[in-house]
Structures are given as C-alpha cells and as structure tokens.
Amino acid sequence: MPVGDGSWVTVDVYGEPDAPGLVVVPGGMSDAHAWRHVATAIHAWPSVTVVNRRGRTPSGPLTHAYSLRTEVEDLGAVLDEYPATRAVFGWSYGGSIALLAAGERPLRQVIAYEPVVRPFGRDALPDLRAAELASDWDATVDIVNRQVAGLDAAHVDALRADRHTWATLQRLSMPTHAELAALNTAPLPDEMARQAGRVDLIVGERNQGTPPYGTSFDDVRQYVPHADVHVLPGQGHMAHLEAPAELAHLLNALGTEAVTG
Q1: What is the pTM of this model?
Q2: What's the whole-number average pLDDT of the chain?
Q3: Which CATH number does the domain 4-118+186-260 belong to among 3.10.20.30, 3.40.190.10, 3.90.550.10, 3.40.50.1820?
Q4: What's the CA gap between 255 and 258, in Å, rounded?
Q5: Rounded-to-integer distance, Cα 94 and Cα 106, Å
Q6: H helices present in 186-243, as ranges
C-alpha cells in the first residue's frame, strides 16, 4: 500500500483480512518473514497482519525525510487499510511505534515486547554512520550485536559462522543507522499510548533490569504508567526467533483477556 514520501509498505496476512485482527509491527533488523512462526501460532484473533516496514524488500525505501513520525504515519496507513484491527503488537523499535501511534488514535489494545526509547544505542551512532557510508553491512551487523545489543564475542562469532543467518542480518541492517538516529532524535510525549483502551508491556525474563533492553524497557514504563507488565519466562530479546510458540501463547492469553475482561 502507498504511504508518504513516495514510498510503500507491504504486509503478510494470516487468516481473513476483513476479520477482527492483530497487527504486528517488527523492530530493527527484522522483517515480516521473521515473524511467520509467531503469526501462524496466534489464534486469539481471526487474522494476523504483519507489517513489512519500509526499508525492507518488498516494501519501499526509507526516503530522505524518514523519522519516527514517518513510522507512526505508516502504521496509521496500515490501520486505515484494516479497520477491523482489534489490537496492535510491536517488538522492540516496533513496540515504540505502536505505543506512539496509540497516543494519536484510539486503539482497543496495544502490546509491546521490550520497546526501546532514547538514549537507546546512541553511542553506536557514529560507527553505524561510518559503516553505512561505506556500505559495510558486515560491520553494521557486528556493531549492532556488540555495541548495541551487548553480545559477547563468542555469541557474535557463532552468528557469523551461520552464513545464511549472517547474510540475512546484513540485508536487514541497511536501515539501522537511520532508524536508531530517528529513535534518538524524536520528541517524546509526556505519556505514550494515551488513547489505548488497554496496554500490555512484555519483558523477557533474562533481560529484566539489565542493559540494554531491560533498562530501556524500564524507561518506557515511565511513559506508560497505566500499562500492565508481563514477563516471558526464560527468554531474552529474540523470543520471536528462539521461542515463537511461547511468545504466541502469551499473546493469545493477552488477547483473550482483552475480549473477556
């Protein structure tokens, strides 16, 4: 579907497009395809629509005017296209987009898994910019994993050893600098998700209270004082890849609660 600045956004739809549904907003270095296992395990909503945010093939480019505002407007275009949406779920950067969108339009339910807020990853911006200018996507993936996510050398080496996974990460890393810069320069409201009927925030058990994701999660909570907080046992930031069934189970439970509560 067309969005602003001459770009466009595609979606993957599971179930009946016109049925009451859940819209999923992936975060950085992730695309709609990465969420297929979670989407197919969700049954609390008759349809699941996964956004392939701009900057990811086959969606369009970020464009020079890209900002966090761009992402919120893109999500708004998706919600206009699917008016039967009952809930929005966002992961990481996508969680922040969902929470901000719910501050501008009424939404029945917003769910966010480890959303991030500035100054998340700010120290890595100069190195990410240099890698982007050199089109060095190998360096970009390394910077994200080491400097932003804080993974140790053994973990990064194991990722690099899987050539298919590393190549996929390189492809998905191209918008990283622009997205992280947008996150760190965007003005924030006094309260996020003000127009949401219900807000659920999820943190992985392994990340509770620890940087970078657990501490950023705690920062986000200050902007969503009316949210309910849930912990996904045994998981970290990449639950959609490492434990899709467990994450889908929690989303199903939260969706059912919203309907019956």
Answers
A1: 0.96
A2: 96
A3: 3.40.50.1820
A4: 5
A5: 18
A6: 213-221, 239-242
